[in-house]
Amino acid sequence: MAVHSREEGGTKPMPNHALAIDLGGTKIAVAVVREDGTIIAHATRPTEAMKGGDWVLNRVKEAALEALDASSLPPHALVGVGLGTPGVVDATTGTMLSEAVNIPDWKGRNLKAELERVLHLPAFVDNDANVAALGEWVFGAGKGAHHLVYLTIGTGVGGAIILNGTIWRGANFSAGELGHVPVNPDGPRCGCGGYGCVEMFVSGPAIAQRAKEFIQRGVKSVLADISPDELTAEQVAVAAQRGDALAQFLLAEAGKFLGVALSGVVNLLNPERIIVGGGVAQAGEWLLEPVRWEVRRRALPTATEKLQIVPAALGTKAGILGAAALVFHALEKV
């Protein structure tokens, strides 16, 4: 992805760089990223979200200035700043349309204007799942795809859609909430208020809870050696890789529910690639193969003909690289 380079006299143009910000529930990560995806410098701060939006933005500014100083780049080498944030974002204006997790006064803030005021760079803001999807599309597992669906599975299930090389945000910037696709109308109540959302079956806490239920019934498993309060989906994944039958069953069950949800998405959107990331995706093929099997069993044959369901490639860098890609992608259209 290239944007217009700047030249100094007759010297070779310097590659463009973006300031990238990944705002998480517990950590703010900031990096200076070259347009080829190389991270030049980085800095972090604790989010301390409950102290409010002004506090969080001050921490963002601190980390940004630290990363800029560490990069030793001249000011003209930076073409913009990109931010991925939890919550629903009007990506046109950079305004928060919803609250973000644990940040009490995030709704209504124009983050684009606030970033431009304190950092003196053109700013671009989007939902964190959209930003991570963009990172995978430009630098990771989505390279070469024109139509893709991105999922991140952790404490919840987030998602994003890229169609014809553009993030599909929907009529009110709420597209991609794949975690709230219902897969069982009689299922447990979700935090969103609905019942039987896929998040209630495939998120990390959901898998851990299922493991506890089976152990309480007396099912034998190495997971029984772990304190119930400390049991996580990541430990289920490790147990599955070591041959534990219960752990393998739990991941296959989660994969089935995810496949049911995705089969409808595949019939509707006909993507060529589905990328699965987040902590739960570390289970690898124990999760993904049941997903593939269920999607191919349920979706239309023509809709799955070119479909690949693959693990994410960027890991924890998806948010940072996506925030940089948000800048380069936007400036490419100017």
Secondary structure elements and their pairing?
Elements: E1 17-23, E2 27-34, E3 39-46, H1 53-71, E4 78-85, E5 89-90, E6 95-96, H2 111-119, E7 123-127, H3 128-139, E8 148-153, E9 157-163, E10 166-167, H4 199-202, H5 204-216, H6 233-241, H7 245-269, E11 273-277, H8 285-298, H9 301-304, E12 308-311, H10 318-332
Parallel strand pairs: 1-4, 4-7, 8-11, 11-12
Antiparallel strand pairs: 1-2, 2-3, 5-6, 8-9, 9-10
Helix pairs in contact: 1-2, 3-10, 5-7, 6-7, 7-8
What this model shows, in words?
By secondary structure, the protein is α/β, with parallel strands linked by helices. It contains ten helices and twelve strands. The chain folds into two domains: 17-135 and 317-332, Nucleotidyltransferase, domain 5 (2-Layer Sandwich), CATH 3.30.420; 144-313, ATPase, nucleotide binding domain (Nucleotidyltransferase, domain 5). Strand 1 (17-23) and strand 2 (27-34) form a beta hairpin. Helix 1 packs across helix 2 (111-119), helix 5 (204-216) packs antiparallel against helix 7 and helix 7 (245-269) packs across helix 8. The chain is globular and about 60 Å long. The model is unreliable at 2-10 (pLDDT under 50).
